[in-house]
Fold Putative ABC transporter.
Amino acid sequence: MLLLTRSGWASAKTAHRSLRQSRWRLPFMVAGAAATCYVSVDYVTASSLTRSVRALATAARVIYMYKSVTPTSIEEQKNLHQAAAEMVLNLCLRNEGLYIKLGQGLTALNHVLPREYMNVLRVLLDNAPTVPMEEVQRIILSETGKTVDELFLHFDPMPVASASIAQVHRALLRPSNSQETPVEVAVKVQKPNIRRQVFWDLETYRLVSWMIGSLFNLPVAWARQTVIDGIRCEVDFSIEARNASRVREDFAGQSNIYVPRIYESLATPRLLVMEWIEATKIIEVETVRQQFDETAVLRILFDCFGDMIFKNGFVHCDPHGANVLVRPSPCKGTSRQRDGKPVGKCRDPQIVLLDFGLCCPESLRFRMEYALLVKSLVVHDITTAAKVTEAWGIADTETFATVQLQKPYRSFLRGNYSEATRDEISEMQSQAHARARTILAHQEQVPKELSLVGRSIDILRSINRLYGVPLNQVGMFVRRAVASLGSLNSFEDVQLYLKRVEELSTMGMEPNTESCSSCAAVPSHSLPPLPMRETLSPFNPVATIRKKAEEITELNLDAMCNTSSYERVRRSFFSLVRRVQFELALFILDAYYMLVRIQRNYLNALLHTVMLKNHIVGLRFRRFSGELSEARSGMT
């Protein structure tokens, strides 16, 4: 009996132990399987899961800081922004790749983000880490099927530049036959892990932006998909090759704008070979000033982008200082020569544009409405500007105008056209933060091109500031905007024209004379605005097809209108009258701006002279005091 009892007790104890072990076995197995899966996926995706977890953890910490801390002073608020910006910087530097590119994008939002973010994240604009030559050789072989020695006579193993997703080497392209001369080229090679990381990085960005928008009730969804689509285009160098060829064709007739030749046989998703250009980066301010007239250089640059935005409808969206070069125009020669060497500044500078990975194709609707908006803001036509912003789903026209002009719009209406002061910048930022929740009342109606085109304009303004703002930033694109509108003067005129183009392109019909004359026959005040619809990303295939159809219809419609002598004379007359009126207003604005600059420079020079005189007087007084003390000591 005792043995049975002991035996039963042992069996029960064993069964209990087995039950307890089996209870913990399943969680351990699940945890082990999850860890194995995590490590495997992380290895296959080049540490993308670890990078995503790190990004989500950083986002959670930053969100918690802003939610839990309530600054009681300006100093505490600055410290809060500084700490958050340093967290973002550390994340970008540790994750590298697309995170550096996204961090660089934040530096262009100087009108929205606090100054602490700009100061901290500026580090990301420097050269990114490089990859070894062995990786470069492997990528070139996998993309072309040929080795570096088979393609190039010489290949510099040290990159001349390194960006977030690629690095550039200087090389000598091997000619196809013995009669040809070797050509010096720039070889852009994508970094090895970008393709495996891009999906996870962009999905993490999508999740983080959704978290920020939801928790802080901020309108960030309207531009999210456009940013994602744009970055996907950037990591495909074959798209960049097509973009460069398109811009090269757009400016083929202008000698002061140049796009390097692309070698299409060596353009693949991860490799791009282009013509090497010897020139000066526009951010090398002192060198540019010594060789060129800085005002002429900046005017060529701004006119070039004005044509992109308002005429060509295809915009380079990353014109930072390293992507814009300046050189003497080969067509017109250099400046005066003495003993075979150039003397003085070059009279005919040429702008060279690089890096077309991120280009924005604009819809006809956005291009014309944006031109009308820019014109209306400059001539103080707030009524027309309000109609455009209302059509875009923007409820607060004044705040939007402030962001567009980079200057408080009320100050601009009072006739203050000069560069924004530090106090005005602080006012702009606080106004944008306070009204960010209400400015975009209907996000689905906001043109998706606005974020990318606005980025280009902000970068160009920062280049203008590097040179001390020699050009008036308020009106730097307005001439191109007015020229693109032609005889269309009001919001109703533009809507009527867009309606005719849309109807004809939708029906696939050729425009006739009646279609042309109807633009003038219908009273503009009787035309209702076009029905609002959700705007598409400019990279959406549907938007691309629609844009091509509208371009063809627009060309046919304009050609048909120009066949009528009466219509041609009428349009030319009204365009000329409005252009003269506008040029007069713009001349007054530019004259006022130049007077303010001259006055400011005079006051600065006067202040410097006074300070220098005070310094000299102080030195003489100290010398006299020293001599007097020595004399007294000698008498003693």
